[in-house]
Design goal:
This protein is about 45% helix and about 20% strand. By secondary structure, it is α/β, with parallel strands linked by helices. The longest helix is centred in the C-terminal third of the chain and has 27 residues. It is globular and about 60 Å long.
C-alpha cells in the first residue's frame, strides 16, 4: 500500500533535529519498538521513562538493543507519567509519547492544575489520516479527548487543528465543520455551532484557515456531492480538516476510514505545552512513525514561535 502522504511528513521531519521525547511507560513490544524505530530514523531522541526491569524485559522480548538510550526509572505507570511531565517542565523533553498505559492516566498528569502542562488553550486530539483514495492528508478532530465539546471548547479544537495544519505545511487550510446536513437547523445543535464557528472565523476570532459549515461528510470531501447540493465554497468537496460534532462521531469516522478505506491514522494531542504522541497497539509501523514526524514538526513550529517572541 502506498503511504506517500505520510512519507512526505517523515522526510520533512527527518531534516529536523531529533526531538527529545519522554516515552511514558514503554513496557510492551509495540510501544518500545515504535520509539526505537523513530529514533533510528532520527525523528525523536527517546527518554524511556518507566520501571527499568519491565522496559528491559520488553526489549529482550522484542530483540531490541537499548544501548545508547537514556532510561529514567519510575516505579509504575502513574509515576512514569508524572516523571515524564516533569522532564518537559524542566526543559529536558520537547514532546511526550504514550507507551503501554491508558491514555486517561497520561492525560491526568498532563492536565493537572499545578504540576501539569496546561496552556490557555483547551487540550484536544487530532488524527492525521492517510486515506489512499483522498488527494491530501486529512486532519480529523476531536476523536479521542473531548467527549461532548461545547461551542467554547470547539473554538480551541478548531484553532488547534488549524495550527497543526500549518505545522504540517499545508499550503491552504480548508476546515469543514461537520454535521448530518448542510443547512442550519435549530433542532440540530451541531449545525448552529458550525454556523457560529464560521462567523467567528469571519470576525477574526479563529484565524489561519478557511471555514465552512455545517457540511455533511459527503459535501465536505466530494466535489460532485457538493455540486449536486449547489454548495459553492472554497472548502466544500475539498476539505483537509474535518471538525466532528463529538467524540463518538469522530471515533466512528476515523475507524471507518481505517478499517473500510484502509487508511492509516497518526495521533497527536495539542493544546498542552508540548505535542503528545498518542499511538494504539493496532497502529501500523508507518502510522507510529508518522505520529512521531507530526510531533517533530509541531515541536519545530513551537520552537520558532518562542524564538520570534523572544526576538520581539
Amino acid at each position: 500500500m502506498s503511504h506517500e502522504k505520510y512519507q512526505r511528513l517523515i522526510d520533512t521531519a527527518k531534516a529536523l533535529p531529533p526531538v527529545a521525547t519522554a516515552v511514558v511507560h514503554p513496557c510492551d513490544e509495540s510501544s518500545l519498538t515504535g520509539a526505537v524505530d523513530a529514533a533510528k530514523l532520527g525523528l525523536i531522541r527517546p527518554l524511556l521513562v518507566g520501571p527499568k526491569a519491565k522496559i528491559d524485559a520488553a526489549a529482550r522480548k522484542a530483540k531490541l538493543d537499548l544501548a545508547g538510550f537514556q532510561m529514567i526509572d519510575a516505579p509504575h505507570s502513574h509515576g512514569a507519567a508524572a516523571t515524564a511531565v516533569e522532564l518537559v517542565r524542566s526543559g529536558k523533553a520537547e514532546a511526550l509519547m504514550k507507551g503501554s498505559l491508558h491514555t486517561d492516566e497520561l492525560m491526568a498528569a498532563v492536565v493537572k492544575r499545578d504540576t501539569g502542562l496546561r496552556t490557555a488553550r483547551r487540550v484536544s486530539h487530532c488524527f492525521v489520516m492517510d486515506v489512499p483514495s483522498y488527494e491530501t492528508a486529512l486532519i480529523i478532530s476531536d476523536a479521542a479527548v473531548n467527549i461532548a465539546p461545547t461551542l467554547k471548547d470547539k473554538i480551541d479544537i478548531v484553532q488547534n487543528a488549524i495550527d497543526l495544519a500549518h505545522a504540517l505545511r499545508f499550503p491552504e487550510v480548508r476546515v469543514a465543520i461537520l454535521s448530518a446536513m448542510e443547512t442550519v437547523n435549530p433542532d440540530v445543535p451541531s449545525t448552529v455551532e458550525a454556523a457560529a464557528l464560521c462567523k467567528m472565523a469571519d470576525r477574526g476570532q479563529i484565524t489561519g484557515g478557511i471555514l465552512d459549515g455545517p457540511l455533511a461528510l459527503d459535501n465536505a470531501i466530494n466535489l460532485a456531492a457538493a455540486s449536486i447540493k449547489k454548495i459553492v465554497s472554497p472548502v466544500a468537496g475539498r476539505a483537509n480538516v474535518l471538525i466532528v460534532p463529538d467524540l463518538e462521531a469522530g471515533n466512528m469516522l476515523a475507524k471507518s476510514l481505517s478499517f473500510l478505506a484502509k487508511a492509516d491514522s497518526a495521533g497527536i494531542v495539542l493544546g498542552a505545552k508540548v505535542p503528545i504522541i498518542l499511538t494504539s497497539r493496532a497502529d501500523s509501523v508507518m502510522a507510529r512513525l508518522a505520529s512521531c514526524a507530526v510531533a517533530s514538526l509541531v515541536a519545530a513550529t513551537r520552537r520558532e514561535s518562542v524564538a520570534k517572541a523572544i526576538a520581539a
